[in-house]
Predict the structure.
Amino acid sequence: MGIIRVCTSLIRSLWTLLNIVCGLCTLLAGYGGYINPDKFALAQLANMTFPGWIVLTLILLAVNLFIRKKLAWLSVAVLVACIGPILTISPLNFTSRSLSPDDESRTFTLLTYNVYNFRDNQGVNPEWGNRTLSYILSTDADIVCLQESSNLNGVGKKAQRDSINSRYPYRLYSNRSGEVLLSKYHATEIDTPQPDWGSGSFCAYDVEVEGHEVTVVNCHLQSIGLTDDDKELYRELTDKELRNPSRSELSKVKNGIVTKLLAAFRIRAQQARYIKEFLATRKGNVILVGDFNDVPGSYAYRTIKSDGLKDAYSECAFGPTATYNDNRFYFRIDQMLYRGDLEAVRIKRGDLRSSDHYPLLATFLWNTAAADTIKR
């Protein structure tokens, strides 16, 4: 009986320790985005895994309700403490705002889309043209921000290109990371000198939307830069039927994938601080969109958002989503932030998989009529 009591006590202690460790890891993952990656980049890696820690915490809560009710309160406390980060990745807007005809007259739409250089990621090339280009036309968005794009010469069919040219008289192309602006409204590019970071950059534009002036910023932050071998290793490690990973496989993860992730976190931190400095020079209305290559709640996201910006997805959507759809990296890495005399009232993620990213389409409402807008 003494041995049984000792074993039972040991199991209870280990179970308590597991709950404490899980709680601490969940808190680190939830608030890791507040930590500068130049000082502790692993916190950003933890932040990417935050949804997994929430799921584990919920599982422990359910189990503890039956076996250790006191420990259940620990799980509840962790979830309450993380409510802010949870709502950032999984907003709970149960109802959508209904707009009056007058409201509708003061709306405009914006599409952000990493188009994968208009290659079809699924190898589907219909005779009628390019699927990505067709989707852009189908949304009829007033403003379109593309990443990993170029001028449209040779893309799709001539009829598609002619439709783009006819619909969007203002087309601004960048030679940096492939940022492109297509606009129905008058738009001019803003000079944005910046360091050569590699695969990351941003462009900015002055756009006049029916009498309202808005600065539109189109971002493509530093990519992870994984090779095909890195992606294959990640797919193997996330395979449901995979045996326990070997020491060699774990070493490849540490020296390959993790090292590249940490380096990208640090570069994105520099880019985010640079973009925040640029935003400080722009008064009035701002919409910043693009491929962040990072999740909501990350240091880069929080740094940019701290200039008084709101997250359109958090303001309008319900539940979590992913905007990257390839290699089992199912994260929301495409963001849409804004501030000024406008508000996001609708947002929708497209489901087309011709690119390795899903598109985001938002509807914005001006709070005042154009005549009341204060010019900067």
